[in-house]
Design goal:
Chain lengths: ~100, ~140
């Protein structure tokens, strides 16, 4: 079975597992099996529209699956996948410029 | 919740963030963890270049998925895990913003350092609630 590595913050929602063996022949099927096994992962992986959150990335080896065939990317039994968050943030305030009289 | 960090590692963080000024700087906090501990000890830091579009870096930072992947692989080589993220708020308080919250994951420590006129000032660390509704401040313990 393929395996999928879980980032540290999401391990508590996956029975504290660092790596989970999952069934499926595409990335979408594998993620579906993962969230069926661990339903609490869903709210952190998917937004309210059921799409992968923008900062949730799935890698097959060194490749981001968005650059392959997305959820339709084929997965072999020997493959290792990895959920990798991208991290963004910053202060809310926009720069303001004084208005000269 | 407590974030424990040595003065030497904290110095590495502030040096990176001061060098990034007037833009935001960022990087990863590494430690040993399984995602359940209330106290996390920083064992190493990995600074990254801010990959947000250049005109917006004064108030935004981005660590790309590719950088995170390299960070996780590097952490594994050291026998560590990514336990959080540090970044700066140039000339603004070290308070977590709504934008920070929307892009956060639970359990990670989000260490924010206010950099005032190029010098590191106060720091606060934040953890996202399990229901993603709000950040809660954690104690920073320097040892």
């Amino acid at each position: 079975m393929p395996t999928i590595r879980i980032p540290t913050p999401l391990r508590p929602y996956a029975a504290n597992s660092a790596e989970v063996a999952v069934a499926g022949e595409t990335v979408g099927a594998v993620l579906g099996d993962l969230t069926n096994r661990h339903p609490d992962l869903r709210k952190h992986l998917y937004n309210d529209s059921g799409e992968l959150r923008a900062f949730v990335n799935v890698f097959l080896g060194q490749e981001d699956v968005r650059h392959l065939q997305g959820v339709h990317t084929p997965v072999k039994a020997s493959d290792q996948l990895r959920i990798v968050p991208s991290v963004a943030g910053g202060q809310s305030q926009l720069r303001t410029y004084p208005i000269n009289p | 919740m407590t974030l424990i960090i040595s003065p030497e590692l904290y110095y590495q963080i502030t040096a990176h963030l001061q060098a990034a000024y007037p833009n935001e700087g960022a990087g990863l906090l590494l430690g040993q963890a399984n995602g359940t501990e209330a106290a996390k000890t920083v064992k190493a830091v990995l600074p990254f270049a801010n990959k947000f579009e250049s005109g917006e870096q004064y108030h935004r930072y981005l660590i790309t998925a590719q950088d995170m992947l390299q960070g996780e692989i590097e952490a594994e080589k050291l026998g560590l895990d990514v336990i959080g993220v540090f970044h700066s708020h140039p000339d603004h308080p070290a308070q977590a913003s709504e934008y920070d919250r929307e892009h956060a994951l639970p359990w990670y420590s989000y260490l924010i350092v206010s950099v005032q006129k190029g010098r590191a000032a106060d720091a606060h660390s934040w953890v996202l609630n399990d229901d993603r509704a709000k950040f809660v401040e954690e104690t920073i313990q320097q040892t």
